[in-house]
Every structure is written in structure tokens, then in C-alpha cells.
Amino acid sequence: MRFDRRLAAILLTALAVGSTTISAKEPASPSEQYCTLFSKVRENLSRNFGSKVDPLTRFSGVEVICDHKAMVFRQDVALSKREIDQDWVARRTAHWSKTYCERHASFAGAIRDGWTISTVMSLADGSALRIDAACHDAEA
Predict the structure, then answer these.
(1) Is 1 exposed, middle or buried (0-12, 13-18, 19+ CB in 10 A)?
(2) Those residues with Cβ within 8 angstroms of residue 122's Cβ, 6 or more apart along the chain or in another chain
(3) pLDDT of 109-129, one tens digit each?
């Protein structure tokens, strides 16, 4: 799906911008560093909230919940649960994990530090689908 590439590009651009704008004051722990970085990502992505990323998907926001070490990307998807099979979920999960674990060291580092980086899709029938990034290699 084109959505995967577009959202990945948006996320990586926001992450790159966020990583260059962190203040000179070093946070005390890696968790605080990720919180600061991901909060900047959320701020940089705020102008994209509500935008269509493909004919079926609308980007609906990002939440950074530092106390729970979680970053959640939200999307509204014009598909119902019965239109999505396990193969689709497996492909999407593999793609998100690759995006978060291989395309930027900060995502992989956060996951190593215990952060959960999720994508939550609100489906047309009112159900939701959550995908967590999982890094399977020793480097990530």
C-alpha cells in the first residue's frame, strides 16, 4: 500500500527534524531522551493530522505517553475487520517493524529501552487494530 511509504516518510522526516532540535540540556536518562525526541516528532507531525495518506487511510494523530514509554500513531482506515485477513495483518506488521527497527536508530533504541511503538487503526465498522513494532535481531 502507498500508505506505508508515505507514513514512513512523514515519520522519518519528523524524526530527523526532531532530532536536530533537541535542546543542549541532556535529559537524565535514555527514557527521558526518547520522551523529548518523540514529543518533538509529535509536534512536527501535528500539521499532518487529518490528512489523507491514501484513498482508504487518514492520519489521525500521534500520542506520546512518556510515563508508559509508548508512542502511538493513529489512523482511520476505511476497511472493516472482515475485509482484513491474517496475511494482510502479517504483512502490515512486518512492514511497521521494519520501519521502526531498521530505518532510524532512535526507534530501535527506544524499543530496546522498553518503549512500545504502536500503530492503531480505527476501522470503518468501529473496531480497531493495533500493531506493535517488534525488533527481532540482536542489533535492534
Answers:
(1) middle
(2) 60, 74, 75, 76, 77, 128
(3) 999 889 999 999 999 999 999
What is the per-residue burial (b if ≥16 Cβ within 10 Å, else e) of 24-60? eeeeeeebebbbbbbbbbbebbeebeeeebbebbbbb
Q: How confident is the model at residue 11 (pLDDT cuts 50, 70, 90)?
A: low
For the chain, helix, strand, coil in percent to 5 are 50, 25, 25
Q: Which domains does the chain carry?
A: 2-132 (3.30.300.250)
Q: pLDDT of 65-77, one tens digit each?
A: 999 999 999 999 9
Question: What is the enclosing helix (H) or strand (E) of 52?
Answer: strand 52-54
For 105, residues 6+ apart whose C-beta sits below 8 A from its C-beta are none
In b/e form, how buried is each residue of 65-95, taking b as 16+ CB within 10 angstroms? eeeebbbbbbbbbebeeeebeeeeeeebbeb
